[in-house]
Specification:
11% strand, 9-stranded mixed sheet, 38% helix, globular
Length: 362
């Protein structure tokens, strides 16, 4: 990450500017991925085109710069081209999340002509059986690859991304090699979340401990990045960016503090975005949540390694301020990986910190 972008994000965090927004255009999808957290059966009451365009206008007026169209599967909305054109006309740095199975030549031309920042495609494995087993749609792998190739033929920036699932452990290297063969980028993670109703079923597909350690010590991924260790959190340090510089809008126009499933902070069918952003009791509460409010984390030497989320604590412990056990376990595992990893891991991390990793999109 460049120092200029880091400075921009820090300023947005301080000044409470919703710099980055995810807009879920639909919850409908043509795949049924085993780990998905979205209520895919619920396509009712989606904002119409006029409503979606108004959301874009209000986000831009509030200071949003980085915008992601996501779902569900965004290509199930016939008005996607109109929304893309309007978003780019407003100056958003636009990313589009998709499974690429519905990409047509007209879409590839649109993305190229409008200059989208990237189209990010979920590709779980190069083995068709593994990928189709995860999506639960036979033939989805072939259609996804066809969509990816079509986008690259039109020189659309593409990122191949996926959580590394138990069923696909080890496939990430083959996916990364495929991405690089096409001049695309790639990004992987290992963190899964509960469903929107806090059903933990997706977590059954997470890597086991041995698999996690293998991934964490893989120099290709460089997940065991050594931050400033040994310094407990500052009393004034926010827990995360939720409600400070990130926001999510769902297909019905409800506003959330981030892409994790907090309760909604407001409804754009009834309120303006600015009213919600400035006056929502939930957002005001989260902005006042500091590191020291996480009682079990006070004084932890691994604080800066941790990817804690208060909502994970709610799902696991029923307590917003509890220690998320899974995040804690993953943090200790990354620390072990840094100690036990091969020499190439440290070399790769040094390159990453210097901003010199050509393939990955971390």
């Amino acid at each position: 990450m460049s120092r200029h972008l880091s400075a921009l994000m820090a300023r947005a965090q301080r000044d409470l500017v919703p710099l980055s927004a995810h807009f879920e255009l639909t919850w409908r999808c043509n795949e049924r991925c085993v780990h998905c957290y979205v209520d895919l059966e619920n396509g009712r009451e989606e904002l119409d085109t006029a409503g979606a365009l108004r959301v874009l206008d209000e986000l831009r007026e509030a200071g949003t710069l980085f915008l992601t169209f996501t779902g569900g599967e965004v290509f199930l909305r016939p008005d996607l081209p109109e929304l893309v054109r309007h978003a780019r006309a407003l100056g958003f740095a636009l990313r589009v999340f998709t499974n690429a199975t519905l990409v047509e030549e007209r879409h590839a031309r649109l993305f190229r002509e409008t200059g989208v920042l990237a189209v990010e495609v979920s590709l779980y494995a190069m083995d068709p059986g593994i990928h189709d087993g995860i999506t639960r749609v036979p033939g989805s792998h072939a259609r996804t690859l066809a969509g990816i190739r079509l986008l690259r033929e039109h020189e659309v920036p593409v990122v191949l991304k996926a959580p590394i699932l138990r069923e696909a452990a080890g496939e990430h290297r083959r996916v990364a090699a495929f991405a690089e063969s096409l001049g695309a980028r790639w990004r992987f993670d290992t963190h899964l979340v509960t469903r929107t109703d806090l059903d933990p079923a997706p977590l059954a597909h997470a890597l086991d401990e041995d698999q996690q350690l293998q991934v964490a010590t893989d120099p290709l991924l460089a997940m065991a990045i050594p931050p400033d260790e040994g310094t407990p959190p500052s009393p004034e340090e926010p827990v995360c960016a939720a409600a400070r510089r990130v926001v999510l809008v769902d297909p019905r126009g409800r506003v959330y503090p981030c892409s994790s499933r907090f309760p909604p902070a407001g409804d754009l069918r009834r309120q303006s975005f600015r009213e919600i952003w400035e006056q929502s009791p939930l957002l005001l509460r989260l902005r006042n949540l500091l590191a020291t409010d996480m009682a079990g984390c006070r004084g932890c030497r691994l604080w800066s390694w941790c990817a804690r989320c208060p909502l994970d604590a709610v799902a696991e412990e029923g307590d917003f301020f509890a220690v998320p056990r899974r995040a804690c376990a993953e943090t200790h595992l990354r620390r072990r990986a840094w100690d036990a990893g091969p020499p190439e891991l440290r070399e790769t991390i040094t390159s990453l910190l210097a901003g010199d990793l050509p393939g990955c999109d971390l």
